[in-house]
Design brief:
This protein is mostly helical. It is built from seven helices and no strands. It has helices at residues 2-23, 29-41, 46-54, 67-82, 89-102, 107-118, 126-134. Helix 1 (2-23) runs parallel beside helix 4, helix 4 packs antiparallel against helix 5 (89-102) and helix 4 (67-82) crosses helix 6. The radius of gyration is 14 Å and the shape is globular.
Length: 139
């Protein structure tokens, strides 16, 4: 059962990213590459990743996911949002909706965008950013 919950959580994570990539109407190769990288890093097979591209509609955010997982979700959606070098209102709205579903205050998105856009590879202290972002979780 734990494995099913893990795979559902991972699939939801990837589905979020696929939906975000599609928001602006154009999915670029860099977005596809990042989504595949996230899927593989989370133990998904190429087939499972392909399924997310074919049907990204299933997004269920479990209330039991850890704060670290929530941070990973936020980090990945902001990273994907910036990958094509353009920001679209639809992308920002979508990411704000996800942030809210994850239990974050709406200001988290602005904070993450500022940090990730100024340092796209987060060569500075990633743990410090994580600690800062966790302060935006609603308790």
């Amino acid at each position: 059962m734990i494995e099913d919950n893990f795979s559902n959580t991972t699939r939801s994570h990837l589905n979020m990213l696929v939906q975000l990539a599609r928001v602006d109407g154009v999915v670029v190769q860099e977005e596809i590459d990042l989504i595949k990288k996230v899927g593989k890093a989370n133990g998904m097979s190429s087939e499972e990743i392909s399924e997310c591209f074919e049907d990204p509609s299933n997004i269920e955010i479990s209330e039991s996911i850890s704060d670290d997982t929530k941070y990973d979700y936020m980090y990945n959606i902001v990273q994907l949002m910036k990958i094509d070098g353009r920001l679209y209102k639809e992308e920002i709205r979508y990411c704000a909706k996800i942030a809210s579903k994850l239990g974050y205050d709406e200001d988290v998105l602005r904070e993450m965008m500022l940090k990730i856009y100024s340092d796209p590879h987060i060569t500075t202290d990633k743990e410090a950013l994580k600690a800062k972002i966790q302060t935006y979780l609603k308790k």
